[in-house]
Write a structure and sequence with these properties.
The complex is a heterotrimer of chains A (457), B (461) and C (236). With 461 residues, chain B is an all-alpha fold. Chain B is 67% helix and 3% strand. Chain B has a two-stranded antiparallel sheet. Chain C has a single domain (2-234), classed as Alpha-Beta Plaits. A two-stranded antiparallel sheet of chain C has the order 1-2. In chain C, a hairpin with a 6-residue loop joins strand 9 (207-208) and strand 10 (215-216). Chain C has helices spanning 2-6, 14-18, 58-61, 87-90, 133-146, 158-162, 179-184, 228-235, and strands at 27-32, 43-48, 67-69, 75-77, 98-99, 126-127, 189-190, 204-205, 207-208, 215-216. Classes of the chains: A mainly alpha (457), B mainly alpha (461), C alpha+beta (236).
Chain lengths: 457, 461, 236
Amino acid sequence: MQERVIMSDQEINNELLRSVFEHPLRFWVGAGVLGIFAAMWLISLSWLIYWGVGVTGLNRPVYWGFLITNFVFWVGISHAGTMISSILRLTQAEWRRPVVRAAEVMTVFSLGTAALFPLIHTGRPWRAVYWVFPYDFMRDVFPNVRSPLIWDPSAIFTYLTGSALFVYTALIPDLAVIRDRSTGLRRTIYGALALGWTGNTRQWKLQGIAGVLISALILPVFVSVHSIVSWDFAVSIVPIWHATVFAPYFVVGAVHSGVSAVLTLMAGMRWFFKWEKFIRPEHFDAVGRLLIVIATVWLYFFFLDFVFAIAAEETRELAVMERRVFEWPYWFLLVEIIILGYLIPVGMWLKRSVRRNIKLMFWSSLLVNVAMWSERYWLIVPGIERKYELKFSWSFYNPQLVELGLVVGSFGIVVFLLLMFSKLFPPIVLWEEKEGQRFAANVKIGQAVVPAIVKEE
Amino acid sequence: MAEHAHAGHVAPEITARQTIEDATRRVVSTGAKFATLDIALGVLGAIGLIALVLNLIIEGTGNREAWGYTAIVAGYLMSSVLSAPILAVLLRLTRSDWRRPLSRIAEIQAAAGIVVYILYLPLFFAIPEAEGRFTVWVEWPWGAPGFFSAVVLGLLVFGGYALLYISAIPDFAIVRDRSHDNLPRFERYSRLARGWYGNLRQWSVHRAGLGVLGGAYLILYIWTVSLFFWDFGLSLVPSWRSSVFPGFAAMSSLQTGLALIIVTMYALQRWGGLQDYLTWDYFWSISKLLLTTSLLWFYLWFSEFMIYWYGRKPDEINVLELVMFDVYGLPMLLTFLLNFALPLFILMWNRVRKTIGGPTLVACLVLVGTFIDRLRIFGAAWGVENPFAHEMEADNIPDFLVPSVLDILIVIGSLAAAAFCVRMALRIVPLPSIWEVSGGIGLRVRRQYLNHPVTVIAKPE
Amino acid sequence: MACQAENNIPINEESAFRENRAIEWIRIERYWTDSEDFAESSPQYLPMTCQHCGNAPCEPVCPVYATYHTPDGLNAQIYNRCIGTRYCGNNCPWNVRYFNYHDPKFEDTFTNHLNPDVTVRSRGIMEKCSMCVQRIRRGVREARYDGRELQDGDIMPACAQTCPTNAIIFGDLNNPDSQVSQMVASDRNYELFGELGTAPGLTYLAKVDVDAEEHSEEEEHAAVPQSPVIWMTVNG
C-alpha cells in the first residue's frame, strides 16, 4: 500500500507554509468562533475572581469540583505530546512525523491552561503566588514541601519548560525557512528566533542530539506529572481516592485521552488546512492501533481500581461505591465511561477500514475524550461527597454556570491558541517530512514491491 | 558474521538452508553432550516432587506456613517460565523483525508450565476460603478463590503448550521431511506436523491461529498473574489492599520473563551453537525492553509505597513494616537493588547494552532479585497468623518465614524440574524457529543509502 | 451560639444551610437509632468539632503551612497565610474545616458585638475550631501574672462554659489530677476514627444506654491535648 506522495523539498515547503503565509476566509471564521469561546472563558474567569468561589456549586465537604476535574483532564491531554513525540522518536516510529509538532504544541497549550485551573480555583488566587514562588524567605515562610500541591506546580512547570524547549528545538530549522521566505520586520523577527540557522552539518547534528536528549529527559517528567496529579488525591485519606493504583491509572488514562485528542487534532488539521498529502489514512491507522493497546491497559487499571474499592468491603468505601454505581448521575457516567471510553471506540478501531476512515476516527476520538472527562469527574467528586461514615455532613455537588463556562471556555482557548500557533509557525515539521521522504524507499522483494523505511542507528 | 554490524539491526547473513541445518541438528542427533546435566536436573526434579508429596503427608494442607515456600517458588516460576512466551506474542503482534530468532526461545519456556501446575495443587487446598476474608471475590464465595485460579491457570499452562506447539508445526514438518532415513522419527514428526505442507491456506490459518492464541495468552496471562498474586499473596495479609499490586506483579513478571530469555539466549549462543543467530544486536534490542521494565518496576512499586507511607494509617504502616521495612526489609532492599537500581545503572549505558555480557549479567541479577521479591510477597502472606482479621495490628505482624528442609528441597527441585522440562522440549522442538528466521531472510535487502550500505527490512502488511 | 459569639462566626443564613456551606465550628450531628420506623427511633447527638489531631491529615497537605501544629498541641489555622486550596478540608475525615465562600456579613449592630480578640475571616480562606485559643492564651497569661501554676478549670472554651449539662470538659491531659485525665482513663473513652492513627486531641465517652445496654456514639466529654508548653511557661 503506497499512500505516500513523492514531493520535492520545495513543494513540501510551499504546502506546509500555507498556514503561515495565506489567510483564507476559514481562518478568520475559525478564529472568530474560537475567540468567542475564549471570551466566554475570560468573562467566566472575571466573574469567578470578582465574586469569589461562592459563585460555584462547591460546598462542604465537596471542596473540589468541575475546575479540578478540568485541571486533571487538561494535564491528561498534555501527555499526548510527549507520548507521541518523545517515545515515538526514541523508538523511531515512522508515522510520528506529521503529528509530532501538533501534539507537542497541544501539550504546551493544554498544560498552560491546566496550570491555571488550580490557581483560579483557590479562595484567594492573588495570594497563590506564595504557593508557587516562595518569596518570603525573610520570615522563614517557605512552601510546605510535604504538600502534593507543591509537587504539582514544580512538576507542571518543569514539564511546561521542557516541552516548550522541545517545540522550540524542533522549530529552529523551520523558522529559518520562514526567515528566508519573508521580508522586512517579519524577516528580522524570525531571523532572531532562528538563531542563525544555516543548516550545516554541525547544526543538524546538534539539533539531532538535542532532540534525542530532550526526548529522553522529558520522559521521567512526563510520567511524574500525572503521577503527582494523581497523588493529590491518592495520598489523602479520602476513601476511594486513597488507592495505590492511582498513579499508573492516571498516567495511562492521560495517554488514552491525550492520544485520542491528537487523533482529533490530526483529523481537524487535515480538514482545516487540506493537508491530505501529509496526514494520511496510514497515520490514523497507526494511531488507532496504538490506541487499542492503550485503551486496554487503561481498562485493566480501571478494573483494578474498581474491584479493589469494593474488595475491602469497608462501609465507607462501599458508601462511595454505592453513590458511584447506583445513584444519578454517577451510574450514568459509569456506563458512559465504559461504553464511550472503551467499547464503542475500541470496537470500531479493531476494524482496519474504520481506522482508515478519517471521519469515523474523528468522532470516535471525540467520544473517548467525553468519556475521559467524565471519568475524572466520576473519580474525584463522589469520594468527597460521601466522605467517611458521618452521614450528617454528606453532601452533593451541583455545578454552576460559571464553572461550566470555564470548562467549555478552556476548550475554546486551547484550540484558539493552536490556531494562532499555526498562523505563526508551521504545525507540521518541515524537516521531519523531508527526512521521511528521504528514508522511504520501495524495495522489490520476490515479486512484490513493498514500501520500506530506512532506520537510523 | 555480518560485515556491517555497526549499521543497526544487521542480522548475520544466514541462508535458509543453514538455518534448517542448525535448527534440526539438536533434534536429529540426540548426542550425549549434556546428558549429565539432564540426568542431574531430572534427579533433582524427582527429589523435589518427593519432597512435595512428603510435605503433603507430614503437614497436610491445614498448616499454611508449611506451604509458604511452595507458594514462593510457584509464584516465581509463574513469573518466569510462563511470562517468557509473552515476548514472542508481543513482538509478533508488532511485527518486529528482531523477534525471529528469539520467539522460539521465548515459547519453549512454557514447556515448564506443568511444574507450575503441580506446585499449585497443594496450594489450592491450603488457601483459606474466601468467605469472611477481604478478597476480590466479593459475595461470590462459591469455589473462590482456589477453583477459579485452578481453571485460569490450567488454561494458561495449556495455552503455553499450545502456543509452543502451533508455532512449531511448520518446523516439525521440516524435521519430518528430513527424516526419511529414520522411520520412527519420521512417524513421530509426521504426527506432530499434522499434515503440514505449507500451502497458502495452511499458512494463513497458521498465522491467524498464532495471532488469536497469542492475544488470548497475553490477556490470560495478565489475569492469571493478577488473580494469583491477589488471592495467594495480597489477600492473605490483612489491610494489604493495594490496587496497583496486580499491575506490579504483572510488570515484574514481564521483567523476569525477559531476563529468563536473555539468560537462555546467552546459554544457547555460548554452548548451544547459535552464535550466528543470537548476535549482540539481539541482546541490544531486548536489553532496552529489560531496562524499560526495570524502570516500570520501580514506578509501580513506588506508587504503592508512596500512598501507604504518606497516608500514615496505622494498619497500612504495619503492612509496610511487614513487607518492606522490618520483617522483610532485607529482601526488599535486595530486590530493589537487583530488580531496579543495578539494572538501571548498568543498562543505562548504550555501550553496555550493545554487549552480550552486560544484559546477561543484569538478567541474572533480575532472576535472583525476583526470587527474593517473591520470597518477600508470599513469605509475608503465608506467614500471617489470621488472614481473616480486618486490620493488621502492630502485634500481629508475622515473623520471617524460615524454610524447613523440605521447603528447600521443594524450591531446588522445582527449579530443576522446570529446567529439565525445557531441556526435554529442546530435544523435540527445533530452535530457532526455522520458518520465522528464514522468513526474515527474504525480507531484507542490501541497499546503498547515501554513502552507507544499509540493510532494508521490509514489513509485510 | 456561644461559639458564634466568641469566635466572630458570621451569621449563617438559611441559604447557607441549604447549600451546605454553613460555618459552625461546633455542630451537633443528629443520628437516629432506628431509621426505619420513626416512632421507634430516638435521636442520638454527636457534637462535632475540630479533633485537634496530634498527627493531623490536614496539616501536611497545605502548600503554604497555613494549617500547622502549635507546640501545645493545637491544630491552628493561620488566616492570612491561607490561600484557600481547600485541600485540608478534603483530607479531614470529620469534615470540620469550613471555607468562607462569601465575605462575612454581620447585620448592623452585630459589628459592635464582635470579639476583639478574634480575627474576622475574609472571603476565600479556611477556618475551623481553634479550641478558643484566645482564652487559652489569656488563661496562661493571667496565671503567669498571678505567679501561680495553671489550675484545672482556669481555661474553658466557650462551648464547655455554656454547656448546661457539662457534656464538654476541657483540661490538660498531662496533669494526672485534672478531670479530663481521669475521664480519659475510663473504659468508655474512645477516639472517633481512631483507626486512622491521627491521634485526635478530642476523645469521646461512649454512652451507656440503660435500656439496651449498647454503646452508641454519644459524645460526652472532650479533653484537651497534651500541652507541655503551657506547663513550661507556668513553671518558668
